[in-house]
Amino acid sequence: MRIVIPLFERFTALDAVGPYDVLTHLPGAEVVLAAAEAGPVRDGAGRLALTADAALADITACDVLVVPGGPGARDYPADGPLLDWLRRTHEGTRWTTSVCTGSLLLGAAGLLTGRTATTHWARTGQLATYGATYTPERVVVDGKLITAAGVSAGLDMALTLVALLADQLTAEAIQLLIEYDPQPPFDAGSLAKASPAARERLRTL
Amino acid sequence: MRIVIPLFERFTALDAVGPYDVLTHLPGAEVVLAAAEAGPVRDGAGRLALTADAALADITACDVLVVPGGPGARDYPADGPLLDWLRRTHEGTRWTTSVCTGSLLLGAAGLLTGRTATTHWARTGQLATYGATYTPERVVVDGKLITAAGVSAGLDMALTLVALLADQLTAEAIQLLIEYDPQPPFDAGSLAKASPAARERLRTL
């Protein structure tokens, strides 16, 4: 089973690496990082580069797509190499998934028309412009499309995906392996939970 | 404020990237990935490389250390370049932190003697050999040492660290930004919660 994570300039590292570190433990899965060209791809924060081991053009099919988001996903050019590749590759996938604003890339590729989907809380309006119905859940499954909310939701999505690809016991085993027993020190991880003061602080960051 | 994440062959990507994607949003912080030599460093799963932008030898001081774990941390050679560097750099840090088996590197460097600390649940015995007292908590603060439990605990540690470096409101703002409102689809993220069947499945992965 081949799982491809396509990278692009100014992606969010955790969007890609959260699912990566879950899915690499799935028996029989080969995870491949790909980009327009093989080589290092710089993230949105600019202090990190992940190496793409393959060029998109060299990948004509895969079983699972995991599309990360990031600043570069919000304004990805309509004629960029990724969108055509997503359209073509999606036709043959078993599951096409996204994390955070990765759903905007799926939308820009025309794959979310008439579908329910989620994205980062700050980008729900842009999601709607692609004909998708925003659903305020952490992981949304619609047919073979699975979209996740912002950044860290990729972990919850990837465990859901493992249960679909293998079974719940395998997902639980991987959850134990990565000790995913979250205990955030604060309770501000959603718009509904964050205080007005925390939202105001975020605007200044 | 300079935050350094030292990489080594066979590190666990999420151990590094979880804290990275929290700490890069901290105002005034410069996050640097470093390794024995600058360039790509391959992770433990082998399907990913992160680029180290600096060589350890070029970094003589930093404010915060974030040491990831991974398969390469469990058997890191006693005369490898990282341990001496950790010992020297730790002297000047404000906070020295680890994720998962990164604490074994701190231990091998002699920095945990007589301290309370945590690590991945499967490596508590090795932690004790370095003179540390294992504490079964997700994030353990002892003086300027902060250790986190396995892999995904780096997110909880990093938010704790932001509150210490800046304030709670900044940590909450970053938590909202990365939408860290975890909703794991299963409840198997610790030894106490995972079923015997899930633990058995993990042994077969």
TrEMBL record, chains A, B:
Pfam families: DJ-1_PfpI. This is DJ-1/PfpI family protein. The keyword Cytoplasm does not apply. The keyword Lyase applies. Keywords: Lyase. Its EC number is 4.2.1.-. Coiled coil: none annotated. It is an enzyme of class 4 (lyase). It comes from the Bacteria. Residues 1-163 form the DJ-1/PfpI domain. GO terms for molecular function: lyase activity.
